[in-house]
Amino acid sequence: MKYVIEHMETGFSEWTILEYSQIIRDLGKENLFLTSLPQGTTEADIPSRLVALGLQWTTQEVIDIVGGQEKAKEVCLLDPRATQDLVPADATEFEYFVFGGILGDHPPRDRTGELRKKYGFAGRRLGKLQMTTDTAIRTTQLIVANKTAFEDIKFIDYPELRFSTYEATEMPFRYVLDTNGKPIFPEGMLELIKNDSEQSIDDLL
Length: 205
Ligand code: SAM
Hints:
Blueprint: E1 2-7, H1 14-27, E2 32-35, H2 48-52, E3 56-57, H3 62-65, E4 75-78, H4 90-93, E5 96-101, H5 112-119, E6 122-124, H6 133-144, E7 155-157, E8 160-162, E9 168-170, E10 174-176, H7 189-204
Helix pairs in contact: 1-6
The chain binds S-adenosylmethionine.
GO molecular function, one term: protein-arginine omega-N monomethyltransferase activity
InterPro entries: SFM1-like
Pfam family, one: SFM1-like
């Protein structure tokens, strides 16, 4: 099974770099493709941390990577607006799992809809709440590779990150819990969120 992220943001924010880095570590570099980078992109445009982790990237679209329109039936788009939820048996149905490389927004703007309309791949949902891209990939992996039913995965919705008595941030997403009952974030993400929140508090002063 291969995982594809259609990159839909402009450039690479620090948040995106941390998410993509974690996804490469989770899946193994050979199982992930980052597609649809702007024409003319060169390796110099790819953040060095992603290059160092062995990111496979291309300016081609996902349809070219999977082998053209005749292979489209082997492709599943993970789509928050799909009518069917992903189940372990989908592992035999699909070879490629495609995700929007989209930063989460609240309320969600359905930018995944652009991929739905463009390619017409079969869609599967991962429950009714928005996940970050790395969480959506982690959940997909648990369902199709580990054969865990969605209902058996432990999640936390909208966790509050408390940095001090006065400082807390609510994350408007669903996250997978680790074995210690803590939400799984990409390495470095908590520090980034803390720094960003200090920044915005400073902006108000
Ligand atoms: N706000 C975005 C939108 O407007 O579509 C959602 C982006 S989400 C942060 C990034 C990607 O993760 C989505 O494009 C989708 O592939 C996947 N994803 C996130 N939550 C999902 C869910 N509940 N079901 C299926 N896929 C999901």
